[in-house]
Records
---
Amino acid sequence: MLFDSYYLCPTVLGACKNKRFRYVGAAKKNRTFRPDGRPFDKKRLSTYGPNTLRRLGRWHTIPNKKNHRLADRVGDLSRAGRVKLVFSRRKSEQSWIALATDETRWNAKTVLQHYLSRWPIEVLFKMSKQHLGLGDYQFLRYRAVERYLHLVMIAHLLLTHLACEKLGAKAIRQGRRLPLRLPSVAQMQHTLRSMLWDDAVSAMEQGPRYAEIGKKLKDIIEL
């Protein structure tokens, strides 16, 4: 489970524990932390984070990202319990973040790579809200809401599939596969509408009843 600092709370963490989900979440800098071996040494993250990065931080290369200076410590975080904290700062930047996870066996780079997966998820929900009606349901029953959300996600999968099939979406340059640069959801919606319209006109043209109408529509479109 991946979430920001708002959801790093006992309620959400308890739900993750009940479901046996591992989590990675950002921690607010006003929280306190007690490192392992020093149960009475309470540190505030706002000062503990920069000091730990300066003393223990090491530079790591993250694929397709800036280099990050990372440092990790295990201990007890306020309102979260025993966690591994990973402090991260991008190269050429002064700002830093603290990431908390209950999987203390992961190294700092693994924790950061998991957390960086949040951004594509954020884009998914943003595009789904703007173009696919996510959140616009008017049902009260839980099952109806759940089915509506499933339909929205199926629509997004269909548009993504069409985008992947577009010519050049899987371009290979100089013998090296590049990251996919897919069209936007809005562009793919326009493409899908055009495909559906073409199918409807072709069906009319081939049918015995509306063949003449379909042929005229096709001539007009081609003009």
Note: The chain has two domains: 2-116, 122-167+181-222.
---
Amino acid sequence: MEYKDYYKIMGVDRKATQDEIKRAYRKLARKYHPDVSKEADAELKFKELGEANEVLKDPEKRAAYDQLGSNWNAQQGFQPPPDWGSGFEFRGAPSGGDADFSDFFESLFGQGRSPGGKRGFHMQGEDHHAKILIDLEDSFNGASRSISLQMPEVTPDGHVVTRTRTLKVGIPKGIRQGQQIRLAGQGAGGAGGGKAGDLYLEIEFRPHRYYRVEGADVYLELPVTPWEAALGASVNVPTPMGKVGLKIPPNSQAGKKLRLKGRGIPAKAPGDLYVVVQIALPPADDQKARALYERMQEDLEFNPRAAMEVA
């Protein structure tokens, strides 16, 4: 995916004020509007300009975009960092992506990340939303965590800055990735005596060194020795709730899934934990090990490529 330098597209400095961005857009929009421009690529430039303006005119999108930094170029394949956008507090509720924008835009501000709420006058304060990262173990046990959120604001001189606030949040046991925690009254203040809006925290799990999660199910890649896979064995395996004993059936192949029922994310109908067998080969790094591999080569009639009909 290609990184989009919205400041370059708009022809403004990264420190430009919101008014400078507004003026730059108006000037370029007149120049490249397809109905009046004679430029061969006017339609494409007008579309890119509209996308850049959609981000830079919005202090929240702009502050989140700026977090990526500018150290990208056309030769680099772009993917948002796994924790991109976490800890940013946006006004409005999450909305779906904009189909007319690029894949780059969608990867940053698509479903669940775009501050799409309307900002008209309301007696009740607007709802806010943010994405937060928690540990997988927090979902298994429940937890109380202090989180810091950054809220972009525009200063009187037109620059975008962020302020930070810290909240104590209860993580309910069994919460899944993508679900939300509602904090009543923690959104924007109401007008004319109206009550404050709510803050919705979208949950995402931090990457774990052992596990990956799909819905309520948890997956563990378990390395086993060739003899454990071939002969069968009883081994201890880690789970988010502590180690358990597991039987490896004889003649297990790499990729075989062993199910531990009900040991996934807890709930009324809990998920499962799947142990995926991965065979780890001992290195032939000394004379004894090499001799053993050579003996296996001579004694075992085994060709894993036989079905491929290759020599």
Note: Residues 109-205 form a domain with the HSP40/DNAj peptide-binding domain fold (CATH 2.60.260.20).
---
Amino acid sequence: MTILLLWARQAKDAPRWMALIFTPLLVAASAWIHGSWYMLVLPGAAILFTGYWRSAMAYGGCWLLGSFLGCALTGHPLEFLFQSVRHMFEVFGNSVVNRQLEGEFYPSDGETAAVLLSNRAAGHQPNRLLNPIFVMMVMAWVLGLKMRRFWWDYGTPAFMLWVAFELQDHLEQGMGFESAKRLFVTVALAAGVYLGFTSDRDGRWTENLTTEFLTPDNPALAGWLPDPGGIIYNSDMDVFFQTFYKNPQAPWRYVLGFEPGLMLPENLAVFRKAQWNFGDSRAYEPWVEKMRLADRLIIHATGGARPNLPALEWNYAATEIWIGRLPRPGPTTSSQSQR
């Protein structure tokens, strides 16, 4: 949003010094913090499609400088550059259907409300279309039809700025600076923002209150978490995030961590097969065959149904979470395998 403001509120094709100074710093910060340095080429494309050739070239130079600066801050600039590009391609892996991808990679539904509102606003003053903010919004909307992260990360900020400027112009034309109506409009907008951010819609503020974490200090899980040097064969990234961050120093490893694209090819094939079969536990049989006594298979089973893998002992460790292990030497009580 800051980059769009820097480049949209300037003279038609003459970038201001503030844009030339702050853009490389912002791009560098983004590249260093998040890694997707290549995505910030999109504002430059919006400037170019607006017709501001000189500004687009200037932005391109700022983007290149900022990208290399941000990557240099990692201590391994070239390696980081190539790793980021490799990650971009590998997150899609060898998927065939959408359910084999993370939800953020699904296509957008078109954001009809945003399109209608923007079309109505632009219809009164067509010259507003020649604005990097509006062009950025349109670009992200089109790309979002392929992958909705484009709309979430780039279209939504541009849309927010577009609406803000539209409201500003409307209020400046329809209300005097000293009009009491301004106060009421401000209070109404502030109330909407407050209620929108503080509402617990879809449990966004309280969802984690009911999360049951898997920790070694839970007596009910004694013997059910991996032994030192063991491996967690986990069915999804939620198992990793909920377990790793609760046990950051735990002496075990994970088959699936931050991203499926980083999995070993043979493990990724098992994971994709499970996704293909809507999470059918039988797809994990190749993992069961190579498990050791120190390893565990943790399956996030919607509905709480016990996984259909009789080769393992099972413990219902948390809500919709089953932990499987190879049978222990000696007798096993029913409470251990059926909890």
Note: The chain is about 50% helix and 5% strand.
---
Amino acid sequence: MQQSRQILERLMIERGESYSQISILLGRNRSYLQQFIKRGTPRRLSESDRKILASHFGIAEELLAGGLRQAIGSQGPTFRTVRCLLLGAKGEAPRPGVNLGAVNVDPAWLHQMGVGAEHISFCRIVDDAMAPTLVTGDEIMIDHSDIHIRKKAELFALRLDRIVMIRRASLSANRRLSILADKLPPIHDVDPKRADIIGRVIWQARKLLQ
């Protein structure tokens, strides 16, 4: 259950919620969740508590019941929980770090990708500004540890003028940004201070249409 406690603590930090707030949500005394996470009392959350917390944080209830281990046969691998971010319909999005769900990923695969679970998130594309490179419904993985724009244009998640977008970005010789979309006019000569770089897109998946 230690991993379940770690999951809850991380979720509360990311959402800016306190132990007392979540305890009240459960209909418990204000110190209930703090005692569960910090002192291990109670040893397990009740089924009703797990259902409420899973619904509130948008995660699978199983993560709070048995931690992160999901066996496939007797020698099954240990999966890591990775957050999911959501882009709004017009590119608007919550601030990076807000957890809107989670998926389980094999750490061996992440190792092959050269990233750690603590540095990545998954996101679903909701427009065709980057088509045909990325289209609505594509899933992407963002590496939040890589926020350095280079001379060669690469795909990044970034916020520009309060709008979050997935775009190709490159850095010119005079240290100005160029932001490129496949279906929109390019934006050149951007002051780097205007752009908040969320992370580099390092993987994508697309459903094959029949």
Note: The two ends are 43 Å apart (CA to CA).
